[in-house]
Amino acid sequence: SRTMPAEEFVAGWISGALGLILGHPFDTIKVRLQSQSKYRGIFDCAMQIYQHESILGFFKGMSFPIASIAIVNSVLFGVYSNVLLALTSTTHQERRSQPPSYTDIFIAGCIGGFVQSYCLAPFDLVKVRLQNQTEPKVQLGSLQPRYRGPLHCVSSILQKEGPQGLLRGSGTLMLRDTPTLGIYFVTYEWLCRQYTPKGQNPSSATVLVAGGCAGITSWVTATPLDVIKCRMQMDGLKGKVYHGVLDCMVSSVRQEGPGVFFRGITINSARAFPVNAITFLSYEYLLR
Ligand SMILES: C[N+](C)(C)CCCC[C@H](N)C(=O)O
């Protein structure tokens, strides 16, 4: 069919949701490492979360990404597939026998990345704000967390920062995702073609490995801007005000050295393999 059928939307949601539940604890640790300096590393962060916030602490800020993963994943794959159709006049089925050029795949991936980043921005902002709350969820008395949940977070941002407040960090997110989703799809297609005879469909094992490696490659290249994006999203809460992406980059390097750009790269990669292996497997499975 020439457009995104409904079942692909469902596939986008199911595969994204499965991957996300699996990956969310890793993501929470990453967000903490990137925007707070009080943790000595992955293990220390995990232990502190478990001790102070129980197991639930790892799943803060997950409800919104679960809801949004459907929209974000199917916009990403839908735009990617339709741009490739426009560039090469081939549908997904025809692409096995008439493989698009890596240039076309990169362009389609970048355009998909650009569009999905503006769908993702508000959901990602709420996720990061909730993940960075270190007060225990069940704490009574004084130490009440700033946001009681995702919807309270949205209304609080709207009140304090207006509608454009929900797009805080969206420019950095777009810069992070546009090139790296081009890399994501090129890596996936290149690895599939390495291990699949010409004209045939890749095996499930090939799809899993290619999808996982695509996830790692894109997250490694996305990590520097991922750190900046996270700080831009937390901006204004503790008084620090960045005057744009460059200012945030310069002051972060000045205060914490160039290593700040690689905060969370290990955990991003550990999380990215299973999440994206599942995402691509279900995507291919449903297309067949
Ligand atoms: C573009 N960037 C590398 C940031 C993400 C690429 C993979 C996105 C996937 N839904 C995941 O959660 O891993």
TrEMBL record:
Gene Ontology molecular functions: transmembrane transporter activity
**What would be one Gene Ontology cellular-component term for the protein?**
mitochondrial inner membrane
Solcar repeat segments: 3-86, 100-194, 202-288
Q: How does it sit in the membrane?
A: Multi-pass membrane protein
Say yes or no: keyword NAD present.
no
Q: Where are the transmembrane segments?
A: 66-87
Q: Where in the cell is it found?
A: Mitochondrion inner membrane
**Looking at the keywords, is Mitochondrion present?**
yes
| Name of a matching Pfam family | Mito_carr
| Alphabetized UniProt keyword annotations | Membrane, Mitochondrion, Mitochondrion inner membrane, Repeat, Transmembrane, Transmembrane helix, Transport
The UniProt family comment states: Belongs to the mitochondrial carrier (TC 2.A.29) family.
The protein in question is named Solute carrier family 25 member 45
Q: Which organism is it from?
A: Loxodonta africana
